[in-house]
Amino acid sequence: NKPVVVYYDNINHILRAAYAEFATTESLAAGFSSSGIACNTSESMGHHPNISVNGENFAITYQGQGGENLYLYQGSGLNNLFAGTSELIDAGVRTNQQLLVGAFSQPLYLNDTLYIIYADQTNNDLVISHMDNASWIPSSIASEGALGSFINALTTSNKIYTSTYKRYFDDTGVDLSTIAISEYDPASSTAP
């Protein structure tokens, strides 16, 4: 019952986790302890991190290698946060093209299944990835317009709902940007 925060350390170029030295019902005066996690120190790793918890399991997603890859660091028990494992989720490779992927990632659990929502910055799409037969499968769930910035997601009624900033200018240059809301039903064979 101690808060945990994940963030990118821009000075050391690594993903870090900060543990509260206090319980949620105690004084904040004890502060936080911080340590690097899941990172290869020879590369800039850990941009746009986010964390999700499902019972004892945790999932931290982050962008690495100049914005070309999306990674997942996961394990069991927040008290064992530094004993997790890291894996590449999306290398950004699509039909002979290297994409920038992984910004604004949002891991979330639905019925004990981990889903990861993130930006495909090259195509301006909102992407969801899930494990299927030991491989992570990315699928575009929203592609009308410039999408994928400032993602938020939640699960309810066995569906995933996302919001993202949609950049849009009309022909005269007037900014008509808005928030785009999407619904994704994992039980459905196709994304909306």
Characterise the protein shown here:
The chain has 192 residues and is mainly β. Helix content is 0%, strand content 60%. The protein has no helices and 16 strands. The strands form five sheets. The chain has a four-stranded antiparallel beta sheet, with no helix packed on it. Strands 10-11-12-13 form a four-stranded antiparallel beta sheet, with no helix packed on it. Strands 1-2-3 form a three-stranded antiparallel beta sheet, with no helix packed on it. A hairpin with a 2-residue loop joins strand 14 and strand 15. It is globular. The protein starts with a strand and ends in an 8-residue tail after the last strand. 30% of the residues are buried. The mean pLDDT is 83.
Oligomer kind:
single chain
Tell me the structural class.
mainly beta
* Biggest sheet descriptor: 4 strands, antiparallel
Count of individual helical segments: 0
Determine Rg (CA atoms, Å).
Answer: 17 Å
The global form is: globular
Q: What percent of the residues sit in helical stretches (DSSP H or I)? A: under 10%
Order of secondary-structure elements: EEEEEEEEEEEEEEEE
Q: Please report which band the strand proportion falls in: under 5%, 5-15%, 15-25%, 25-35%, 35-45% or over 45%.
A: over 45%
Alpha-carbon distance between the termini?
37 Å
Number of strands: 16
Strand order of the largest sheet: 4-5-6-7
Low-confidence stretches: none
